[in-house]
Amino acid sequence: xxxxxxxxxxxxxFSVIIGAYNDWTPLDNCLASLAxxxxxxxxxxxxxxGSGESAPEFIRRWERCFQLxxxxxxxxxxxxxxxxxxxxxxxxxLLFADADCKLQANCLSALATTIADSPEHSxxxxxxxxxxxxxxxxxxxxxxxxxxxxxIQPNGCIRYLNTAGFxxxxxxxxxxxFAFEPAAIRAEDTLVLANLMQGGELPFFVANSVVQHATxxxxxxxxxxxxxxxxxxxxxxxxxxxxGVRVRANYRERxxxxxxxxxxxxxxxxxxxxxxxxxARQLMRLMTSFIYRFLHGTVQLSHLDNLFLExxxxxxxxxxxxxxxxxxxxxxxxxxxxxxxxx
Length: 343
Hints:
This protein is α/β, with parallel strands linked by helices. The chain contains twelve helices and eight strands. β2, α2 and β3 form a beta-alpha-beta unit. α5 crosses α10. 39% of the residues are buried.
């Protein structure tokens, strides 16, 4: 078993785990940013989640720059891909990133320093920024900045978790069997946050370890993805509601965030139109969430328990802990709809 020894020469300090699905060009930029990192040792694990073609040569060439492992699996979703990466990782710290992310200069070095100086923390949220070279990227920068500035806590932790830049100690993984819930098609990282909050914990925010989320979506695709994601997240938020944990901002907090967005536009010289665009996006997401709840309002909570857990008395779902005895049972009427999503 790999241990959480930050000074062990036998294994890299970091295992960077990236799920990929038909996004080789963004992944190439992500790997290029990793090649620029200096300081701590690391390995990179790319899990190809059933892409239309296997990893091209321009991806495999990075094997000459750092330890790169590429494994391919049948399409099962990003949660299953990350879990596969966890299984074969060797690092003392697991760092999750997305294929369309770029680690900024000294990202790993700053993260390693913070982790070494914070033995009381097991989970770490890196600071996320947008790519301001496009209008959509500028809007994403505004969204990420607003969330992180408003959800930071006085003790340095943050009520926010995004696996575009999230790290966890190996010791926590070994002790509690950390895994992502494959049944959560979207917002699986928010489910992890809910489990942390249920246990009285939040990730520690590492402000000087920066990851750029470089989206290449058009404005239309940006809206469509937001709406479709909001609908798919409905099932995950049903699970979180059954846990009795509140992770979403209330309406007062949302109003405060809108005010904060307006100030951020001025401070960072972001176009005011990005503020209105983001407000419209969030409003449409809220409407989509209401539609989901209306369409699924007749589903009993016990049905969700039966779908995701054998033991309905247990409220601690497997996004954080997956004991070997956990099994998923699906009723005959629900099986055709969900069988392809659950392993």
